[in-house]
């Protein structure tokens, strides 16, 4: 059974991360020379309130969205799990890098998630993190899966895009997830 990839609501973790970061000027300013990536062949643009990204044209709207505001899935399941991408939004006042750090901190407190990597990168001109995590199954699912996600912030809203695939198929989906995450953009 396919289950939408979980994204972690940040709540108290965001407040703690912002307090730890202080109220000083940012070392993570927007990259003015950023050029949006070209859409890969077979990808189509999608958008929602305040965000846009590109996904494979064969992926369809997901029946289960969980806490996400939008989700699509590959119609071909692997290990009884459909690869998927979802977008979660929540209030956040601050910069993308701070939101990404708070998201990482929240993931590290989730008993079902293991953050495998957190690499600094630039997405939509904003310094942020690309997080890869391993998730243990939660009933009724019996499938272990992996996620790649990034977080952006703009106009008082935090946006998280998450691409998920079964753990055994993740490397096969890596380039697709990478393209989706890198295509993510928010209104400025």
In words, what does this structure look like?
The protein has 188 residues and is of the alpha+beta class. It has one domain (11-23, 43-186): Mog1/PsbP, alpha/beta/alpha sandwich (Protein Transport Mog1p, Chain A, 3-Layer(aba) Sandwich). It is built from three helices and ten strands. The chain has helices at 11-21, 96-109, 170-183; strands at 43-48, 51-56, 60-61, 70-73, 84-91, 113-123, 126-135, 145-154, 157-166, 185-186. The strands form two sheets. It has a seven-stranded antiparallel beta sheet. A hairpin with a 2-residue loop joins strand 1 and strand 2. It is globular.
Task: Identify the overall geometry.
Answer: globular
CATH class, named Alpha Beta
Count up the helices: 3
Biggest sheet architecture: 7 strands, antiparallel
How many beta strands in the DSSP annotation?
10
Q: Provide the gyration radius in Å.
A: 16 Å
Query: Number of folding domains?
Result: 1
Order of helices and strands: HEEEEEHEEEEHE
Kindly state the percentage of residues in helix.
Answer: 10-25%
Mean pLDDT: 86
CATH topology: Protein Transport Mog1p, Chain A
The assigned CATH architecture is: 3-Layer(aba) Sandwich
Amino-to-carboxy terminus distance: 37 Å
Strand order of the largest sheet: 3-4-5-9-8-7-6
What's the CATH H-level homologous superfamily?
Mog1/PsbP, alpha/beta/alpha sandwich
Overall structural class, as computed from helix and strand content, comes to alpha+beta
**Unreliable segments (pLDDT under 50, ≥5 consecutive)?**
1-25
- How much of the sequence lies in strands comes to 35-45%
């Amino acid at each position: 059974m396919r289950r939408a990839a979980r994204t972690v609501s940040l709540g108290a973790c965001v407040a703690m991360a912002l307090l730890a970061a202080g109220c000083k000027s940012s070392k993570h300013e927007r990259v003015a020379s950023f050029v949006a990536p070209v859409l890969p062949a077979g990808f189509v643009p999608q958008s929602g309130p305040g965000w846009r990204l590109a996904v494979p044209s064969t992926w369809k709207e997901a029946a289960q969205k969980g806490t996400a505001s939008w989700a699509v899935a590959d119609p071909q399941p692997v290990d009884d799990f459909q690869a998927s991408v979802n977008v979660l939004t929540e209030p956040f006042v601050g910069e993308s890098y701070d939101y990404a750090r708070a998201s990482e901190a929240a993931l590290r407190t989730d008993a079902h998630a293991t953050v495998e990597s957190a690499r600094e990168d630039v997405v939509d001109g904003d310094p942020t993190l690309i997080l890869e995590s391993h998730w243990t199954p939660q009933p009724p699912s019996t499938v272990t899966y992996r996620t790649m996600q990034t977080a952006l912030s703009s106009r008082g809203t935090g946006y998280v895009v998450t691409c998920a695939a079964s753990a055994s198929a993740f490397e096969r989906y890596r380039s697709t997830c990478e393209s989706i995450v890198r295509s993510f953009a928010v209104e400025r």
